[in-house]
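Hi L.,

You mentioned the student needs an example of a multi-chain input paired with its predicted structure. This one should do, with 573 residues in total across all chains.
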Amino acid sequence: MEPTVSVQELTKRFGRKVVLDGPTLRLGPGVTGLLGPNGAGKTTLLRILATTLAPDGGRIRALGLDPADRAQRTELRRRLGYLPQDPGFYPHFTVFELTEYVAILKELNGRHERHRQVRRVLAEVDLADRARTKVRRLSGGMRQRLALAQALLGDPGLLILDEPTVGLDPEQRMRFRALVSRLGESRTVLLSTHQTEDVAALCERVVVMKGGRAVFDGTPAGLAATATGRVWSSERSPAASELFWRTADGRYRTLGARPPGAVPAEPGVEDGYLLLLGGDARATA
Amino acid sequence: MNTQWHLPGELIERYTTGHLEAVQVMSVETHLMGCARCREAVPYEREWLTAGWERIADAVDRPRPRPVARILRRCGVPEHVAVFLAATPALARGWLVAVTATVAAAVAVAHLVDSTGAAWTVHPLLFFLTVAPVLPLAGIALAYGPRVDPVHETQAATPMAGSRSLLLRALAVLVCAIVLTGLATPLLPGPPGLAAAWLLPALALTATTLALATRVAPPVSAAVLIVAWSCAVLTTGGLTGDGLVLFSPAAQILYGAATVLLIPLVHLRRARFDPGEPRWNRPSASKN
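Structure written out for the whole complex:
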C-alpha cells in the first residue's frame, strides 16, 4: 500500500546553511508528531510538504502526487490542509469572511457549497457562534482554532499543522488535542511541536528531527524505550556535566550515566527525546 | 398546549397535499411545533428540509459584501473573484485614498503651473505625466507577497498560489489606477492627446514590473522601476531641454511595443511566481 506521504533524501539550504540534510520518511493515516529543537528543520520540512517552499533536492510524493510537477502540485493543493506556524489574518475581517476568503483560495467557487463548508468547519472547531465576530476581537486560542478551520476546508486527506498548540492555555490545548485526534481518525495528520506531552497524548507515531535529519522514526513508546537504562532518580544533585533537573518531589532526574546513589526511573517520551538530542538538549537545558 | 389530541390522518393528508385553508395550516403547524408524535406522522423529504435549514443559516451568516466586492459585482466580475479581489491589500481604502489624493494633487499642480506659466520652466503636465504611470506599480507592490499580505503563507498552499493570485490582483490594481487617473485626465489643462500620454507608459511599466517580479519580489521590482522612471524623466528633460521627450509619439510607440513583448514573456515565466516551483524546473536553472 502506498503511504500518504513519502519523502526521500530531501535537501534544502538557505544561503550556506543546510536546513534539511536528506531526511527520509513514509507516513500513513493517523497523527504523526514531528519533534525537534529550533532550527532542526521541522518548519522547512512542513513548508515543503505544504508546497509553499521548493526543495533543493530529493523526492516527495503526497496523496499519490508529485509536487515537483506543476499540475500535480495544484491538485495536491486542492487536497491538503495547512496550518502555518504563524498563520496571518486580516484583522478587520469577520471569522466568516476570512474563512470564506480561504475557501475561495481553495477553489470552492460556488457560493452555496462554499458557505456550507465554511459553516461546517467553523462548527467543527467550535466557532460557529463567532461567525460574525471580527478577527481582531478573538483570543489567541480562538485565532488558532480559526486557522485550523481554514485548514479543514475542502475536507483534506492530508493535514499539515505547524506548532498548532503554541500559545494555547492548558484547557485550550486539551481541547485542541481532542480535535486533532478526532481528525486523525480519517486522514493523515502531520504536526510539528516542541511539546513532548502533545506527542505522548495524541500521536501514533513520532519523528525526531535534529540538524536537518530524521534521527528517530517510530512510536512514542519506542522513543521512550530508547531511554531505558539511562534515566535515573537521586536525592543528591549529580555532576554539572550531566543532563538533569529537579522534579516536583524534590528529587533529581538524570539522563545518561548513572550518578552515585541514583536508582533507575521509568523512562518517558521526553527522556528519549532529550537523550536523542544529546548536546543540543544540554545546551538548552 | 394539549398534546393528548393528535392530528387525524385525513387532516395530515390534506395538510401535506396543500388542501387546507391558510388558517387551518397555521393551526396545524402550531400543533406540530408542540407535538413530536404528529411531527413524526408528517412525511417530509430530509434533503428538502436540510436544504431549507441551510438556506436560512446562509441568510443569517452571510456577510454583507465589502464595498470593493459590490462594485466589482456591478461591473460583471464573478462573485468569487470579486470576494477574492476585495481582500487584496492594495485595494484597501488606504491605497485608493492615496491614489485619489496623488491624482488630485497632480491635477492641482498642473493648473497651478499653467496659470503662472511664465514664471516656470517646466511643462504644466510634467508632474502629472511622471506620477500617473507609477501609480499601478505602487499598487502591485502592495498586492502580493509575504511582506504585504498577512495571509500569504496560507494562500501559498492553495490552488490560487502564485501567478493566478498575483496576475489577477495586478490586473485589478492596474484597472483601478487607470480608471481613477483616467477620470482626472479631462480636468487637465493642455491638449487631450498629451494629457493621456501617461497611459502607455503605465502599461509598459506595469508589464516590466511583472517581468522583473519573476526574478525579485514585486515590491523590489516596483520600487526599482519607480526610481528608474523618475530619474529617466528628470535626466532626459535636463539633457534634451524638452521635459516631455519621454511622452513624445516616438516614445509612445516604444512603450506600446514593450508592453506587447513583455506580456507573453510574463506568461511564459509565470511559474516563477509559484513559491513551490522547484529550481530544477526553471528554464534558466541547470538540472539538479
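You could point out the following to them. Chain B touches chain A at residues 54, 57-58, 61-63, 66, 78-80, 83-84, 87, 149-161, 165, 271, 274-281, 288 (CB under 8 Å). Chain B has two domains: 9-61, 70-280.

Best wishes,
N.
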